[in-house]
Amino acid sequence: MCGAQSSSVRLRWRREMLETRAGEVVSCQALDSGTLLLDVEVEDARHRALAYRSLTGDVREGDRVLINTTAGTLGLGTGGFDFVVVNLSRPSGVAGAGPGHIIKLRYTPHQFSVLADEEAQPELYSQAPDIGGMPVVAAFLHSQVALVAAGVKAARPEARVAYVMTDGAALPIGVSNLVRSLLAEGLLDETITCGQAFGGTRETVNIYSALICARHAARADVAIVCQGPGNVGTGTPLGYSGIEAGQVINAAHSLDGRPVCAVRMSRADPRRRHTLISHHTLTALSRIALTAALVPLPWMEPGDEAEAIRQLDELKLFERHEIRSFDGRLGMTLLEKSGLDVSSMGRRFADDPLFFLAGCAAGTAAAAMLDEDFPG
After folding, report:
1. Which sequence spans correspond to the domains of the chain?
2. Cα(34)–Cα(52) distance, integer angstroms
3. Does domain 117-368 have CATH number 3.40.50?
């Protein structure tokens, strides 16, 4: 890079922007085996930055690093982090190619190889015809992963729960403190990253092989499929990353799974399009999902229930999906006992109970599907 000694580099082309700055690492904390949390001194300011060892190699105090500050400058980003692009003190510190040949972050300067589970166990992926009726919960927001998992574990503590993280939002799973906490508390048993997402216990090529992986390699009873932190939204009907929930419903059905939709609901979101049942959920169920899903609603006050029924009926969703009420309170009780501090859009349970109860209700519904006498 020309001018590598400069403390700040800003590149603009049309409406695209990349901003990088160089600084010195003044503190370093390992969040897990592959993720480092750094404080980087840049001129007179201190930046919090994440480094992924698979991309940058090791980073230590005193190293000089180049960080991507684009999201922070734009006021975006999950957790307010910048990201290490390269360790200028050890530019060749990344280990050589591993045994796999599947490339993640393809055709970018950070592309690297992983051993995909499909490569490690080709016989399994060649022979497994389907996922044998496994409940697959399609969620819209990363925070819902905790709610669904708690709902499952509250009803069926022995059930194995796998989280399949798609590439709809954050690509490295290491950015998620939520996932680390859920694994530590035993609310998740396995993580699988698919597509361009990376860093899960198992790596897979796409959502279909990820579901095969969840059922047959991870031995999951329930799979939760959702994007990572930092979802993208534009306020338009189709222009948001969570629309993939409808595609997940289709994928689950095509592999003989039982799709469940984790309904996004809110009484606290000030945006009209997210009032009660979010347009995200309504759009995915009405325009993207090509097959029926179980759509669990939480127990609600009569007025909210009547409004939710109106929203669903207006799009004739009762004709296309199985819509039933489930109790999400046991899941919330388990979350509270675990001590996990779960929030969504800065709101906690006391601020927006309907959002949390709806997510837990989806987990309760998935757990109920594990009973032999569950209809369907």
Report:
1. 8-87, 117-368
2. 6
3. yes
Amino acid identity at 208: Y
CA distance 305 to 277: 10
Q: What is the pTM of this model?
A: 0.91
**Count of other CB atoms within 10 angstroms of residue 156:** 19
Q: Which residues pair with 83 in a beta bridge?
A: 50, 68
CB 257 within 8 A of CB 198: no
Instruction: Specify the 3-state DSSP secondary structure of 86.
Output: strand
Q: In this predicted model, what pLDDT tens digit does every residue of 177-213 receive, in sequence order?
A: 999 999 999 999 999 999 999 999 999 999 999 999 9
Cα gap 169→175, rounded to integer Å? 11
113 by Cβ neighbours in 10 Å (0-12 / 13-18 / 19+) ranks as middle
> Is residue 126 exposed (0-12), middle (13-18) or buried (19+ Cβ within 10 Å)?
exposed
CA-CA-CA-CA torsion sign (248, 254, 260, 264)? positive
Q: What is the pLDDT of residues 312-362, one digit of tens each?
A: 999 999 999 999 999 999 999 999 999 998 988 788 888 899 999 999 999
Scanning the structure block, which residue is given the tokens 């309907």? 354
The CATH class of the 8-87 domain is: mainly beta
